[in-house]
Structure formats: C-alpha cells, structure tokens
Amino acid sequence: MQDKIIQTVGLAKRFGEFEAVGGIDLEVFRGEIFTLLGPNGAGKTTTLRMLMGVLQPTGGTARIDGLDCFREREKVMTRVGYLPEEPIFYDYLRGREIINFVGEMHGLSEADIAAASEPLMERLKLDDALDEYAVNYSRGMKKKLALVCALMHDPALLMLDEPTAGMDPYATREVHELMQQRTERGHTVLFSTHLLDQAEKLCDRAGILFKGKLAAVGQLDELRQNLSEDSSLEEIYFSLTQDGVEDNIPENLSK
Ligand code: ATP
Q1: Pocket test for ligand 1, best of 15, 50, 161, 251 (most atoms within 8 A of CB)
Q2: What pLDDT is attached to residue 99?
Q3: How many domains does the chain have?
Q4: pLDDT higher than threshold 60 for residue 248
C-alpha cells in the first residue's frame, strides 16, 4: 500500500452561506507529483490554504504526515514549503533580508541560509535583485523569491499554488526541473495550475476540482477510462467541467 503524506476526509470550507470546498476526500502519496486542476473559483487555493493551516476548515479533516493541518500547523509548517498564488512581502524589505528572515524562522544558521538559497537564486536568475526592495519586484520575481523561501528548509512536501504564474519561459523550465528533482529525492509535490500541458507533462496523478468537489482523481490513464484511451488531459478536463465557463462565485459576488 502506498504511503500517504496528505489525507483529507470530508474537508470543507464555507464562507458564510457559500460553500467554497464541499467535502473532499483526497490522498497524496509520498514521492509523487500531484496536480489540482479546476476552473476559476473551483476551490484550489482554499484547499491548499487549509492544508497549510492558514484557514480553519468548517468541516472534515486534513492531515499531513498524520498531523492535523490546522491544530498542529506549527509542526506541519516545518515539513512543508508553501508557495502562495500571490506572495506578499513587506514592501521595504530587500530580497536578501526576506530570505534571511525566513531562514531564521526555520532555525537555519547564516551559513545554512546562504548554502540553501544562493544556488536557487542563481538558478532562478534572482541573484542580481537581492539588494532591491520587494516593492520593486515584478510579479514573476516575487514568485521566484517566494519559491526560494519555500525551498530553503528542504521540506519533504512542496505545495505550490500556480507555481509558474507570471514567470518567463526560462524560469518556468527551471521550476519544472526543480519539481522533478524533488520527487527523485523522494519528496512530494502538490501543485495547482490552469496550464493543462504543464499538468500533463509533470504530474503522476491529478485531481479535478469543480465547484468545490473533486470530480475525478487518478493517473491520467485512469481519468481517460471514461473517455477514449487517447484523450488528452484537455479533453478530460472539459468533459468533467462542462459548465466550467461559469465561474464558481458566491451569489453576492455574482451580480
Ligand atoms: P483560481 O483558479 O481563480 O485561483 P481557485 O480554484 O483557487 O480559483 P479559490 O480561490 O479557492 O478558487 O476560491 C473558491 C471560492 O471561494 C471562490 O468563489 C472565491 O470567491 C471564494 N472565496 C475564497 N476566499 C474567500 C473569502 N475569504 N471569503 C469569501 N469567499 C471566498
């Protein structure tokens, strides 16, 4: 039996009357790349935020390594590297100061911070911007800086929310390689994306979220079973999210 690093049972989140995540049972196995797909508003970010312990579920449970993601979030955070969809930094901290701050929070020494971050910054071509204030970073640069912060403590699980959004093709290629190299070392990657070709290229298994529910989970071959053997992920996605053009937005926001 495969070793589960993430397990959710009936995981749900309501914002007032609106159900953003409607009770999902999800298992992610150690050492795999798992992708969460779904249209705008499907509940991907909300799910990842509950797994990070940033949001308290209104129903069900989420566990990482057997730890409750909300109640034991401090322990969970030591095992997980999280890249938010839109990273936010203090405007007037420089890149280098942010990296040192996050490294120290993880209990790393100055030498460990340098050893962990410098190769990553060079790889992502961020080393020239280290003395720049965060307020002057572009969206892609902020995403890269947040990725360095997420990787510095060498977490066993990486959770990446639209990891390459805003990144140029060179950085995108580096991030894909980084994800694959993590799993070669037995680490696990869970990422959300809208880029179906990125999912098709990288993931071992995918989960398709639609209106807060998991419409399907499995290897791409398993997902193809209901269609034809040579269906692309794009065809599977559209067959499962047929009215996906209609965003899942709360009633009070949809008028
Ligand atoms: P996208 O692909 O556009 O990033 P997503 O799948 O990540 O979408 P979520 O950000 O998880 O979707 O949002 C799911 C739903 O929950 C959306 O309808 C959103 O408007 C709603 N939602 C998210 N956060 C809140 C909040 N704090 N208060 C009220 N509604 C929220």
Answers
A1: 15
A2: 96
A3: 1
A4: no
